[in-house]
Design brief:
The longest helix is centred in the last third of the chain and has 10 residues. The chain has a single domain, classed as Electron Transport, Fmn-binding Protein, Chain A (Pnp Oxidase, Chain A, Roll). Strands 1, 2, 3, 4, 5, 6, 7, 8 and 9 form a nine-stranded antiparallel β-sheet that branches. The chain is of the alpha+beta class. It starts with 5 loop residues before the first strand and ends in a 13-residue tail after the last strand.
């Protein structure tokens, strides 16, 4: 028999805290008029998601103009306990152009792909939604959540 599960919405601040607790998520954007999803690593800087792009990335060309609307999802799931959380951010993605900010962000990012980060993509966290999947008991059983 499966224990009772509950889906609880988090506050914006709690969702951003969860997002900051993991290094990887999925970037959702439009490529050739179709949805595209790429796993990428990130850091959170206040209400901005910072993502490093490798040379020739399709998204860099689109974001260079006036920016582009994207979504970003990250989560942490415990398959055995059937608990976890998911955070989705929707916002405008723009390329960072300030030399000092580029230097700081390049040092902060830990890319998983080989090669240098050519561009820095900033996503302003306009819409932030977070959900906890909990079992019997408290929210604290979900990793990264404090009561």
């Amino acid at each position: 028999m499966t224990a009772e599960r509950e889906l609880q919405e988090t506050s914006r601040a709690e969702a951003l805290g969860l997002l900051a607790s993991v290094p990887v998520g999925r970037l959702v954007f439009t490529h050739n008029a179709l949805p595209a999803v790429r796993p990428v690593n990130h850091v959170l800087d206040g209400d901005k998601l910072v993502i490093g792009l490798t040379p020739g990335t399709a998204l860099a060309q689109v974001a260079a103009a006036d920016g582009v609307v994207v979504a970003y999802e990250a989560d942490s799931l415990d398959i055995a306990e059937q608990t976890g959380w998911s955070v989705v951010v929707v916002g405008i993605a723009l390329l960072e152009t300030a030399p000092e900010a580029l230097r700081v962000y390049r040092q902060a990012l830990r890319p998983w792909l080989s090669g240098a980060v050519s561009d820095i993509l900033l996503i302003k966290c306009e819409i932030v939604t977070g959900y906890l999947l909990t079992g019997p008991g408290s929210r604290a059983q979900v990793a990264g959540v404090s009561e």
